[in-house]
Model the fold of this input.
Amino acid sequence: MPVNRWWRRDPSERYWLEITNRDDIGTNLLAPQVNDQGKEYWSYALVREVRPGDLVLHWDKNHGPGVVGYSHVVGEPFESIITWQSRGTYGRQRKASGPEAAWQAPLGGYRQLKLPVTQARLREIESRIRSLRDHLAASVDGPVYFPFALSDTRPLRAAQGYLTKLPRALAEELPELLELRQTAISEPHEPEVPDRPSVSRPKSPRPAGYGRQHDARRRQAVERYAMDLVLDHYRSLGYEVEDVGDRSPWDVTVRRDRTETHIEVKGSTTSREAIDLTEGEVRHAEGVNTCLIVIDQIDLDDNLHCHGGRWRTWTDWTPRREELVATAYRYPLPGGGQAGRPQK
Done:
C-alpha cells in the first residue's frame, strides 16, 4: 500500500516521532523494508519519507517513557542493512534475524529536551490530543500515522510502530517543545513563533506591503535596543567598545588591557531557545574567540519603544556544525530560463 503523504503540501509539517528502546538515540533512523510476514509496513516505510531538515523527536521506552530529545535529518534516506528483532509480543518470541534490507536516514545534532515530555504529561492533556487527532483525521483522506494510540478503554500510550508522523498542531500544543518549534522556522525573518501557541488553524496569508515594512521596523527596533544595551553595559565596565555590525560578521568589539573580544548579539521579544545564524557568523565564531549574548523577552510597544528583557551570555562560544539546522538555502539558477513573461 502506498504511503499517504498528506503533509507534503505544507512545509511546516516537518516533525516525526521515533518510538524506540535503542541505546544510540539520535544516530539515525533505521528500519527493515518489510515486516515479519514479508510485507511492507507503514511505520517502517515512513523512514524513506523524511527529508533533510526534518526534525525527529525520540520517544524512549526505557526512560520515562516519553520524548527525551530531538535530532534533525541531515541527508536523504537510502537502502541499508539491519539485523532486526521485532519488539512486539510475537517478536520477543523470535531470535534476532540475520542481515536484511532496510531503510536508513542519517540524523545529526541530537539534543536532550530541557524538560522531557513524559507519557504522564501527555495523559494530562489526552482529551486535547484526541481532539487534534480527530480534526486531522477529518481533514485528511487516508491514514495520518498518528504517534499515539487513543482508546476508550486504555489511557494514552505510544503507537505500536517505529516511526510516526507528528502533526505540527501537536508540537505547538506543548510548551516543552518551544526550542523545537523555533528550530523548525522555515524562513529566518518570518514572524516569531508565539511562546504558547494555540491549536491548529488555517495558514494565514503572507502579509504584504505595509505589513512587511512594519515587521522590518519592529525587528530593527528590537535589534537596535539589544545592541545599545550591550554597548552601554561594556562602556560602564571600562571597555573601549565599537559597533561593527554593519561591516563585520560579528556585532560588537570590546577592548581592555590589550585584550580584544568579539560579541555576537541577538535580540527578541519572545523567549528564545533557538536563534538564526548566518554562515558568516558561524565561520567567524569557529575561528575567533567570540561571546554570544542573547537578550529576549523584550517588551515592544506600538511606538516601537523597547524596555526590559532577559540577558543570557555564552563566553568562548563556538556553534557546533552538527547542531545547525538549515532554514534557508541559496540556489544557483540553472540555465534555460525563458526570458519574458509567459504568454499563456
About this structure: The CA atoms of residues 59 and 67 lie 4 Å apart. Confidence is low (pLDDT under 50) at residues 88-94, 187-212.
